[in-house]
Design goal:
Layout lengths: L7 H26 L8 H20 L9 H14 L1 H11 L1 H24 L9 H21 L2 H31 L10 H26 L1
Helix pairs in contact: 1-3, 1-4, 1-8, 2-4, 2-6, 2-8, 3-8, 4-5, 5-7, 5-8, 6-7, 7-8
Protein name: BAX inhibitor (BI)-1/YccA family protein
Family: Belongs to the BI1 family.
InterPro entries: Bax_inhibitor_1-related (IPR006214)
Length: about 220
């Protein structure tokens, strides 16, 4: 049965918070059950994981992923994502310490909320013109990430994180603007129509968090 949505924006933020909670549940389950040796693979896994998130961001915005599907798929995705993030987050917890990681997490939340607020205050569709530039930038970043897997440059890795932070910060502006546009056009009428937007915002947030962690870790060295 399809349930009509009264306040789509509030529902999207609610499901985004639940999705992030599922990610952390997945992380703690990974922490309990994955071998400790996985932690030492974090540096290598990180680049492949970033490729995975980049591909998800690209696919979701080019209709390769359906625009309407069950929210349960988002929860399953974020839960598995949390398990996959265990070695990466464990690496940063060991390298930076719990306090710094928590501060970076708070910083990512504040940055995300600020960008969402800015976009929300603009007219519906205000930032949609960023779409082609962000798509091209994402593809270029994907290529650089693949090349860096083979060259393993720490400088390039830092540049990737800085550029990625800019791209996905801009994507928050774009995605909130797209949500407002879809609401104004009547394209969001039930819970399934929220799923692609929740997934996009989740990918934005996780990329911002990982990029910030990597930048802080590089400068901490």
């Amino acid at each position: 049965m399809r349930h009509r949505i009264i306040n789509p924006m509030a529902e999207i933020y609610k499901h985004l918070a639940i999705s992030i909670l599922f990610m952390f549940i997945g992380f703690f389950i990974g922490k309990e059950f994955l071998p400790v040796s996985f932690v030492y693979l974090a540096n290598k896994i990180l680049m492949f994981f970033m490729l995975f998130l980049l591909l998800t961001a690209i696919f979701s915005r080019k209709s390769i992923i359906p625009r309407s599907f069950s929210m349960n798929f988002v929860y399953v995705f974020t839960f598995i994502d949390g398990i996959l993030m265990y070695p990466i987050l464990s690496y940063y917890l060991q390298s930076l310490g719990t306090d710094i990681v928590i501060n970076v997490l708070i910083g990512a939340i504040i940055l995300f909320a600020l960008l969402a607020f800015i976009s929300h205050k603009k007219d519906a569709g205000h930032f949609l013109s960023l779409g082609p530039t962000l798509f091209a930038s994402s593809l270029a970043l994907l290529v650089v990430c693949i090349v860096n897997i083979f060259i393993g440059s720490s400088v390039t890795n830092l540049i990737i994180s800085i550029v990625g932070l800019v791209i996905f910060s801009a994507y928050v502006l774009y995605d909130i603007s797209l949500i407002k546009y879809d609401i104004s056009m009547g394209n969001i009428v039930d819970k399934n129509d929220l799923s692609i937007h929740v997934l996009n915002l989740y990918v934005d947030f996780i990329n911002i968090l990982l990029d910030l962690l990597n930048i802080v870790d590089r400068f901490n060295d």
